[in-house]
Design goal:
By secondary structure, this protein is of the alpha/beta class. The protein has a single domain, classed as HybD-like (Rossmann fold, 3-Layer(aba) Sandwich), CATH 3.40.50.1450. 28% of the residues lie in helices and 21% in strands. Strands 1-3-2-4-6-5 form a six-stranded mixed β-sheet, with helices on one face. Helix 1 crosses helix 4. The longest helix is centred in the C-terminal third of the chain and has 25 residues. The chain is globular.
């Protein structure tokens, strides 16, 4: 099931999904459109049992996307200020105790995951982040930095490798 936006109430999942790829970002904001471009690439090879979702949503709107899934792969931009535009960061949710500073979304994905766990909801058991260092995520209608655009196929390949790893680890039978 490949989705682009939030599920309608009548289409909310009844069963747990093995893998969901959640690509975040806003197509109107320069480098922030990175997630949408990666989602387009992933949809070319993802098998039907892998959900690929691209959304500009943030905060508690992401709650539906972190529930009822075994492995959640998140693709986004993360401005660390210590890497060049286009640098790729890979980390697991547990690698970060807290994020430095507040989320630019006020309530970010980490806060949403923490809330879901506090409430005892069926949150993702494993969360992997693939993030690229942006140059500009604020300019409406701005062009994507060339180094950020160049990272799109690399991150898509990283997702493919993670999906292959899931196949080997769990025997899900995902074929490419």
């Amino acid at each position: 099931m490949n989705s682009i936006a939030s599920p309608e109430p009548s289409t909310i999942r009844e069963t747990r999904v093995a893998i969901r790829v959640l690509c975040l970002g806003n197509d109107l904001l320069a480098d922030d459109s990175f997630g949408s471009l990666v989602a387009e690439q992933i949809r070319r090879f993802a098998p039907p049992e892998v959900e690929v979702i691209a959304t500009p949503e943030a905060g508690f709107h992401l709650l539906d996307y972190v529930l009822d899934v075994h492995r959640l792969i998140v693709v986004d931009t993360v401005m660390t200020g210590i890497a060049s535009p286009g640098a790729i960061h890979e980390f697991h949710e547990g690698d970060l105790e807290t994020l430095p500073g507040g989320s630019p979304h006020y309530v970010g994905l980490h806060e949403t995951l923490a809330l879901a766990r506090c409430l005892g909801l069926a949150v993702a058991e494993e969360v992997i982040f693939l993030a690229v260092e942006p140059s500009d995520c604020l300019t409406v209608g701005g062009a994507m930095h060339p180094a950020v655009r160049a990272a799109v196929p690399s991150v898509a390949r990283m997702v493919r490798d993670l999906l292959h790893g899931e196949k080997e680890e769990t025997g899900l039978g995902i074929q490419f």
